[in-house]
Amino acid sequence: MERTWDRIKTVAKKNNGFIKTAQVEEIGISRPMIKRQVDAGNLVPVCKGLYVLANEIADEYALLQARSKYVVFSHGTALFLWGLSDRTPHTYDITLPRGTNVTLLKRDNPNLRCHHVQKVVYDLGMTEVKSPQGATVRVYDKERCICDLIRDKNQIDLQIYSQALKDYFKTKPNIRKLLKYGKFFGIKEKIITYIEVL
Q1: Selection from 83, 78, 73 nearest residue 170 by Cα
Q2: If you compute the radius of gyration of the chain from its CA atoms, what whole number of angstroms results?
């Protein structure tokens, strides 16, 4: 039993503090052993097939993406992950393909703001970055974030909006990519105005 727990714990620690039923089975441990670990207070169920270590803090960003392979951090949350906003998100902005069912995700995570987009828009600018706790998570690149910011200006806090634009143009902005995305979203002229001003 002790050796079994050590093996589960090792996988969970490598996996940002959580483990899936499929991962437990991959290391040759049966499902009933998961229930024993839950009953012993070692594992806490998050949802069907997903557990966190009881005495450790799981990476919230990685855990949220473990719940759905479609979750991509966007808008204010992505700006924070890129260092273009110093405001720690209390509400996570995520983008998913249109038609993705998020009922259970929203039920278990009331601090979610979901943005649904067409598949062709969903894939544009998707990349990975490290979360504050060190997990690798899916996020939109800086240029896509700036485009989303400009497109959804009325829904963004003005202070976050201004800081993100200033900080982006202070770093090495990829103007070519920004204009390419801007053309795709139909906001190229707005972007040109920002480039001239900033």
Answers
A1: 83
A2: 20
The upper half-sphere exposure of residue 161, i.e. CA atoms within 13 Å in the direction of its Cβ, equals 13
Paired residues of 129 in beta bridges: 137
Per-residue model confidence as pLDDT tens digits over 77-104: 999 999 999 988 989 999 999 999 999 8
Q: How many Å apart are CA 62 and CA 16, to the nearest integer? A: 7
DSSP string, the chain: -HHHHHHHHHHHHHTTTEEEHHHHHHTT--HHHHHHHHHTTSEEEEETTEEEETTS---HHHHHHHH-TT-EE-HHHHHHHTTS--S--SSEEEEEETT---HHHHHH-TTEEEEEE-HHHHTTTEEEEE-TTS-EEEEE-HHHHHHHHHHTGGGS-HHHHHHHHHHHHHS---HHHHHHHHHHHT-HHHHHHHHHH-
pLDDT at 142: 97
Residues forming a β-bridge with 43: 53
